[in-house]
Amino acid sequence: MDEHFYQQKFQEAVDTISAKDFDDAGLHLSVNLILESVALKIYKPEWASNEQSPLNAPGRIFFSVWVSEKSIKEGKLYYNIHALKLRALKAYTIPARSFAEEFKNSF
């Protein structure tokens, strides 16, 4: 997989998205290499157990879209809502399954 190519394409997508809509909602976007995939993540720092490092915090909630060698062969783009170790988010008391179902239904 040409990781540089997909990083560039994801970054171009981020650059064309209306930043105002995301900023108004407090959402941040990030393009990363992770587990042999290129991912676009959408997140809020306050949805992380460590707001100073929201992309690496043990407890965090984010949405991602990614490509990998497998997804390219399948002609697909993978996506998911990630709710990791929600007990680490002291400001929230929502079960992970409930959060994911509500988010999917709203999305």
Write up what this structure looks like.
The chain has 107 residues and is α+β, with helices and mostly antiparallel strands. It has one domain. The protein contains four helices and four strands; from the N terminus they run H-H-E-E-E-H-E-H. The chain has a four-stranded antiparallel beta sheet with strand order 1-2-3-4. A hairpin with a 2-residue loop joins strand 1 and strand 2. The N and C termini lie far apart (30 Å). 17% of the residues are buried.
Features:
single chain; 107 residues; alpha+beta; 35% helix; 33% strand
Our estimate of the beta-strand percent is 25-35%
Alpha carbon gyration radius = 15 Å
What level of helicity do the residues show? Answer: 25-40%
Q: Which residues sit in consecutive blocks of at least 5 with pLDDT less than 50?
A: none
Oligomer: single chain
Order the strands across the largest sheet as they lie in space: 1-2-3-4
The major beta sheet can be summarized as: 4 strands, antiparallel
Tally of alpha and pi helices: 4
Shape: globular
End-to-end CA span: 30 Å
Structural class designation: alpha+beta
N-to-C series of helices and strands: HHEEEHEH
Query: What's the β-strand tally?
Result: 4
Integer count of domains:
1
What's the mean pLDDT score? 85
